[in-house]
Design a protein that fits this description.
With 437 residues, the protein is mainly alpha-helical. The chain has 17 helices and 5 strands.
Length: 437
């Protein structure tokens, strides 16, 4: 069945072209990860990051696809763009002009996207300058300076290089979304995480062979990852279905309506957005703190390392906030109730209109809380256990959630293209992947 699904992809020139564009742009991104920023001693930088494993650097390096420990032109990754998107979405709620733009359809969306790009450049300039200044004061464990020629020349060059790199990644993500398959920004993060998997697996097997990691710990690690993936797939496809009944209507000589349906409410409406947004907000100030050579900043950076109590509490708080915030932005119970009323639909036992909106809002709040708890557990518990087992890479629940969630979204879009053209999906009629919509 799966083989027939792949054959169906080749039958659609449009879908095949979209997939080729997506793979080509992701390949360009992975090539850029290996292009170093000028003025850096690569050996000294690699030695410095070898001693920084298990800290916030490891998490930032995961989201940048391994670009940070090389300090490549893509070292900032896509996080400035995500941070700018968060700021614009929050400002849309409190600034009337932005709220009006968000309601103007395609033209308003383009204006907000343009503002997001400007914000990305500003945040990249700030982060790039902080990193360049911090690198000048850093040395490898052997005492070798990381920056070969410190000064304002190096700082300006680094700021321009890193900002241009982030702007280029932003453009790649937008091109993938527009011309390829899936969400470009999510796929770029996905590609960065997956690209580090082979090295992580080899390093883990090496530790087992040398006796630094026990076989039992390795088995627990594998079982844990499989269990987390299974839980993610279950909850990402789970729905709370509210029954909807449509009244019978007579139009001319024909009778319409009278059928039963349901309103699906996803357990996790926000998908992978909450952990990505939460990580972006935490990493922005914490990364600057790592590169500023002050005692108080070092204390802040240590407290914000993944696995610490402070980090986990802040991380969970942001995840819960963005689960509710993103759900509120994308799903309006009043609009749903109004549309249902116009089409002659009603929830059995609930009066149409305001009562229906209140009921949907109450159910949605409970479902979203359950989804927020699920996302928090998936993102925090595996990371804590992997820290305890001294796993030599950062591939906790956050990474698993992003990888599995983005995979389901992308496959769902491919399925939609196949079904539109009357082809079977990847798994055929008996087991097609359920749409996350």
């Amino acid at each position: 069945m799966i083989e027939r699904g792949y054959q169906n992809i080749l039958k659609l020139p449009e879908l095949k072209r979209k997939l080729l564009i997506t793979f080509a742009l992701l390949f360009v991104y992975r090539v850029g990860v290996h292009v170093p920023t000028p003025g850096i001693d690569g050996a000294a930088l690699a030695s410095f990051f070898d001693n920084a494993r298990g800290t916030l650097f490891a998490m930032f390096n995961m989201f940048s696809g391994g670009a940070l420990d090389r300090l490549s032109v893509f070292a900032l990754g896509i996080m400035p763009y995500i941070s700018a998107s968060i700021i614009l979405q929050l400002m849309t709620v409190v600034i009337p002009h932005l709220e009006q733009l968000s309601k103007e359809g395609e033209q308003g969306r383009k204006r907000i996207t343009q503002y997001t790009r400007y914000g990305t450049v500003v945040l990249s300039l700030i982060q790039g300058f902080g990193i360049s200044v911090g690198l000048e004061s850093m040395t490898s464990p052997a005492g070798a300076p990381i920056v070969l020629y410190p000064g304002w020349g190096f700082r300006l060059l680094t700021v321009i290089t890193l900002t241009a790199g982030t702007a280029f990644i932003m453009w790649l993500g937008e091109q993938i979304t527009e011309r390829g398959i899936g969400n470009g920004i999510s796929l770029i993060i996905f590609a960065g995480i997956v690209a580090n998997m082979p090295v992580a697996i080899v390093n883990t097997l090496r530790l087992v062979s040398t006796g630094e990691m026990g076989v039992f710990a390795m088995i627990i690690l594998v079982v844990l990852m499989v269990a987390v993936v299974a839980a993610i797939i279950f909850f990402e496809t789970a729905q709370r279905r509210i029954p909807v009944q449509y009244a019978k209507r007579v139009v001319g000589r024909k009778m319409y309506g009278g059928q039963s349906s349901h309103l699906p409410l996803k357990i996790n409406t926000a998908g992978v957005i909450p952990p990505i947004f939460a990580s972006s907000i935490i990493m922005f100030p914490a990364t600057l703190a790592n590169f500023i050579d002050l005692p108080i900043m070092k204390t802040v950076a240590a407290a914000m390392s993944p696995g610490t109590i402070v980090y986990n509490l802040i991380y969970i708080g942001f995840i819960v906030f963005f689960c509710f915030f993103y759900t509120a932005v994308t799903f309006n119970p009043e609009d749903v109730a109004e549309n249902m009323k116009k089409n002659g639909g009603y929830i059995p036992g609930i009066r149409p209109g305001k009562r229906t909106a209140e009921y949907i809002d109450r159910v949605l709040t409970r479902v979203t809380m359950g989804g927020a708890v699920y996302v928090s557990l998936v993102c925090v518990l595996p990371t804590m256990l992997m820290t305890k087992f001294n796993v030599p890479f950062y591939f906790g629940g956050t990474a698993l959630l992003i990888v599995v969630g983005v995979s389901i979204d992308t496959i769902s879009q491919i399925e939609s293209h196949l079904i539109t053209r009357n082809y079977e999906g990847f798994l055929g009629k008996s087991g097609s992947v359920k749409s996350r919509r």
